[in-house]
Structures are given as structure tokens and as C-alpha cells.
Amino acid sequence: MYTALRLQRRLKRELERGEVDITVVTPDPYMTYQPFLPEAAAGAISPRHVVVPLRRVLDRCRVVIGEATAVDHAKRTATITTLATEEEGTGGQQLTYDELVLAPGSVSRTLPVPGLADHGIGFKTVEEAIGLRNHVIEQMDIASSTRDPAIRDAALTFVFVGGGFAGVEALGELEDMARYAARYYHNIRPEDMKWILVEASDRILPEVGEEMGRYTVTELRRRNIDVRLQTRLESCADRVAVLSDGARFPTRTVVWTAGVKPHPVLAATDLPRNDRGRLRCTAELAVEGATHAWAAGDAAAVPDVTAGEPGRECAPNAQHALRQAKVLADNIVHTLRGEPLQTYEHAYAGSVASLGLHKGVAHVYGRKLKGYPAWFMHRAYHLSRVPTFNRKARVLAEWTLAGLFKREIVSLGSLEHPRAEFELAAGGKPSQDPPHNPKGSS
């Protein structure tokens, strides 16, 4: 989105004259600002304000809602499936191009853990974030209404796998939300809930430094969160989380945030990739050995020219991806105009992470912050980075109102299957919920 946005600004005159055509192929009609997913899950931000509608922002581009299933760069063609492809029954469409930009991002990296595919919940999309919020609140409803202590214990046990940004921030925000919601249940106290963070390495949040990582562990444990380092999830079959240290937790909630991997579409191209499956790129963001092909973000292995050691690559995070997109767009314009390309160069500024309302950690330009200052910096930074003034204003307004009024603790799980009640009323059988659905077997 950022690349197309900059291209339509830089090539405004060419677009008006019909000399240039920009086509954006995307499976969703919006771009998700992922750093806000934890706050959306906690109810601090409306889900609609975490996403940016592409057709409104990219008004000079042709937006195609579909997926690229294959790319033949030698022939400059991409095979596209759209929402109408199955209806038409004609197979994928062939889309030709002159310049190719591959920025599909990444997908969750899963492991062959028994029961994970059946019971695990991801945390990369706004749908998953809202589904997880609904799920947590419904588990509290189950625990409040059941007379079976085993069901109650499983409903109030929440296991998060992965100690990176996604796992720690999601756990911190949701635990904060659930702790607040417990005051409205006559028979649930915050200490009745078990929150468990499982991390295979010996530290969490490596991006904020070792000292801030240790502080985060201390802060989470102070909130009665069970942090287990150097521990793996061995199984979650039969709704029992079995850990490598021998611990067993009956649970209805397993959130998987243990890393990402490049998007599968990269394997369906004839472009060079490294051993991790990312596209090998130059410092100008061009794909190595392939003219007129470009990449950025999680899908691209871009040399870090600011690093003192050779072979170092830019970290696959939003900080680099956002800046790479602008340089990539500029270099495409330079190519079209026969101008020299510019090198992507950005020294890593640091990281900020939220641990819940008024709690956070930060390591920015060598300075270490924790607590309220880090939380405030987290919000200020991401507010400045979320695209469009419209979204900035709406998010700021929601934060302001949230400071004046109480949290919302309503579960809207029925939104995920809106026809279920009508199907039942019409005499039919409601469709079965998918495994990850809060009303299903999660």
C-alpha cells in the first residue's frame, strides 16, 4: 500500500495522461496496521480503525481483490485468482506487467504440534484479534455459569506461545482487559485466571534489549502471569496444553504467535530466494539477478548497509518495511525516468512495546524506558505512523474517549456467523463453527 501510495503521488501527471497504470493485487480490500491489533483485541480501538480502505487511499490505482498464485517473471505475467474466478469457472486470470513489486508480507510459522491446527488461534489479522477478544470474554461467561470445576479451570486458563512483540503485547493487553472485566462477574476474581506465556528461547522481546526483556518478565510475573522460558509447546490435543518441562494445563485457549515465515506465493515464482525463503534483494530493493522486479518488507532479504558486518540483513519489521516502501517507489520512478537509483539506508532506531494500559517498555536510540513513559511513547509513535489523517484522528478520538469512560466488555462472537440464528429459525441446521471460532472447539 505504501509503495502504491507513493507511486501515485510521484507519477500523478503520467497517470493523468494515461502513460502509467498501477495495479494492486491484494486478498483484502484494506491494509491492516498490525501494531494496533493488541489494542483492538483489548477493545481500546475499534476494529474499523485498525484497517485502511485501499480503494479510498489508492484512488488512482486499479485495486484487484484476489491472490497471485504464480508469477512467471521471465514472461512478465502473474496468475491471479479473484472472488469471481470460481463463479466464472475459467481458472486464474493472466495479468501482464512491466515492473513487478512483491510485498506479500509473511504468514504464521507453525510447527507439527498435535492439536495445534484444531485448537490454535493466530494473531496476525484483525479478524483473529477480534475473534480472540470475543473468545476470552466467552470463556469468562462459561466459567461464571458452569458448576463443573474442571470446565471452569480450563475456561480460565489462557496459553500464549511465543515471546515476541505479538505474543507479549497480545497477552499484556488481553490480561489487562480480562482483569478489568472480572469486576463485573460475581464469581470470578482476577487471581482465578491463569495466564501462561511459553517461549522456547531464554528471553522475551529481544528487540528491546536484554535488560528491558528481563524487566518485562519481572513485570509480567508481578501480574501473576506464568512466564516459562526455554520451554516449548509439545501438544494441545484434547484441549490440554502439554509443555516440554512436563507441565500440563487443561485449556480452551492456545494463542500461537511463535514466529512468521515468508508468504507462500514467493515459492510460486521464478525469482531467487535465500535459505529462509525470502527474496534476495540488493540495497536498492531490486531482486538480485532479475531486472524490473522489486521487493520490500517481510518478503525481502535486504542488505543492511548501516551494519558494521557484511552479510547483515534488515530485520523483517514494520520500521524497515514502511521506509523501504518509499525508497522502492522512488527507485521505480527513477528507473522510468532513467535516473540513478538510491540505496536503502536506515539505522535501527529501537523498539517500543505495550504491556497493557499505562504499561510498556522501550529501547530507543540507546535510551531505556519502562512503565508509563514507554507506554506513552508506544502510542505516540504508532499514532504518527498509522496511515492517513482520517485514521489518526479516529484513533486519537477513541483513546481520548477511552480515558473518560469505562472499558467495553461485550462479546460479539455471533458476528462471525450472522446467519446462524436465521438458519435455526428457518428450520435448518446452523453451520458448524470452524475450529478456531470462540463458539467452536477453541
Automatic annotation (TrEMBL):
InterPro entries xref list: FAD/NAD-bd_sf, FAD/NAD-binding_dom, NDH-2
Entry keyword Chaperone: no
Keyword match Transport: no
Span of domain FAD/NAD(P)-binding: 13-321
Region (Disordered): 422-442
Record key words, sorted: FAD, Flavoprotein, NAD, Oxidoreductase
Top-rank lineage group of the source organism: Bacteria
Xref: Pfam families: Pyr_redox_2 (PF07992)
Cleaved signal peptide residues: none
Record's compositionally biased regions (Pro residues): 432-442
PANTHER family: NADH DEHYDROGENASE (PTHR43706), NADH DEHYDROGENASE-LIKE PROTEIN RV1812C (PTHR43706:SF45)
Family: Belongs to the NADH dehydrogenase family.
UniProt protein name: NAD(P)/FAD-dependent oxidoreductase
Upper taxonomic lineage: Bacteria, Bacillati, Actinomycetota, Actinomycetes, Kitasatosporales
